[in-house]
Amino acid sequence: MPEVLEILALACTGLYAGYMVAFMSGVMPALKEVDDASFTLVMRAVNRKVPGPLFLLLFLGSLALPVASFFVAPDGRASGDTTLMGVAAGCALVGHLITSGGNVPLNNALESSKGRGDERGARTAFEGRWSALHALRTLFAAAAFGLVAVAVTR
Predict the structure, then answer these.
(1) What is the pLDDT of residue 141?
(2) Phi first, then psi: what are they for 74, rounded to 5°?
(3) Per-state percent for the chain, helix, strand, coil, to nearest 5
(4) What DSSP assignment string belongs to 118-136?
(5) What is the dihedral of CA 109, 49, 137, 131, to 10 degrees?
(6) Can you tell me the distance from the alpha carbon of 38 to that of 29, in angstroms, rounded to the nearest whole number?
(7) How far apart are CA 68 and CA 6, in angstroms?
(8) What is the reported pLDDT for 19?
(9) Which residues of 11-33 are buried (b: 16+ CB within 10 A; e: fewer)?
């Protein structure tokens, strides 16, 4: 069972980090090229669709599985590998705190600005801060994945 948790932690953190990188490297740069009304329309739609079952599974699993792997260590795991798994869980937690304390409130503010007729203002209040927070949480997601990968493969 511990090895299964490690493999699931590796898969979940990797898929989640990949999702975050793809969004940062593809979606947001593409949206930089559109007008304000299109930007806010698309981001509102994305913010409504993203928290679906698959995303939530990756989001929650990328934290829960490294935590579980930290506490349910396989026989023979070196203490350094356990430490790596714990640090990976810490990175995932920081990323989740950035999401819940930063990105989600910005998503909610963007949604609540709908219909006010100031798409430029809504975009200005959202895009820069959201992208900076997203880059930061992507860094923590990638770090969590890297740490899990090293812990699992040693």
Answers:
(1) 98
(2) -70, 155
(3) 85, 0, 15
(4) -HHHHHHHHHHHHHHHHHH
(5) -50
(6) 14
(7) 9
(8) 97
(9) bbbbbbbebbeebbeeebeebee
CB 6, CB 74: distance < 8 Å = yes
| Cα 109 from Cα 118, distance rounded (Å) | 13
Task: Give the chain's count of helices (H) and strands (E).
Answer: 7, 0
- Among candidate residues 105, 96, 93, 95, the one with its CA nearest the CA of residue 130: 105
Q: Residue 3: which of 69, 87, 62 has the closest Cα?
A: 69
Q: Residue 9 pLDDT > 80, yes or no?
A: yes
Predicted TM-score (pTM) above 0.85: yes
Which tokens hold the place of 31? 């949206």
pLDDT in tens, 34-93: 999 999 999 999 999 999 999 999 999 999 999 999 988 766 666 667 889 999 999 999
Q: Quickly tell me which residue has 């930061």 as its tokens.
A: 136
Q: Which residue has the tokens 């209040």?
A: 125
What is the CB neighbour count within 10 angstroms for residue 80?
A: 11
